Amino acid sequence: MIHQAIATQEVCQNASLQDLIVSVSGGVTASNFEYQWYSNTNNLNSGGTSIAGANTDTYTPDNTNTGTLYYYVVVKQTESGCQVISATSEVTITPGPSIATQPVGSDICLDGAATTLEVVTQNGVGTPTYQWYSNMNNSTSGGTSY
């Protein structure tokens, strides 16, 4: 018997994904099982592409390419050659936003008029939200939010 991995997940490109984990019961011991994960463009647990190096009960899908892939694992008992195939786990990677136009800074005199900072985003799904930060250092981390 196989306890299935999560059924579906959707994340933005390059975001963290949950690992796909299966557990198998029956047979002699867990060390007597061989695992091979597959990906498929169709929601089928056959005819997929074998994933090199994906030979354990846990697999972390690729999060760099956008689109939907279906993953499944074939678990074979080494002594008997019997095998079981998991259901598919759907993983959808949506395009993350990117900055098409960066804000441009400027030097201003004390009490002078500041140039409006503007940013233009592209890609992504839905309506973006923005959070501006200021920093005493030339760094994109550790700033104070506004």
Fold and architecture overview:
The protein has strands at 2-3, 8-12, 20-21, 23-24, 33-40, 49-50, 58-59, 67-77, 83-85, 89-94, 97-101, 120-123, 133-134, 144-145. With 146 residues, it is mainly beta. The chain has two domains: 2-94, Immunoglobulin-like; 96-146, no CATH class. The strands form five sheets. Strands 2, 5, 6, 8, 9 and 10 form a six-stranded mixed beta sheet that branches. It has a two-stranded antiparallel sheet with strand order 1-4. A hairpin with an 8-residue loop joins strand 5 (33-40) and strand 6.
The total strand number stands at: 14
Q: What share of the residues does DSSP label as strand, in percent?
A: 35-45%
Radius of gyration: 23 Å
> Number of domains in the coordinates?
2
The CATH architecture of the largest domain can be given as Sandwich
Measured distance between first and last alpha carbons = 53 Å
Percent of residues in helices: under 10%
Mean model confidence by pLDDT: 88
CATH class (first level) name of the largest domain: Mainly Beta
How many individual helices? 0
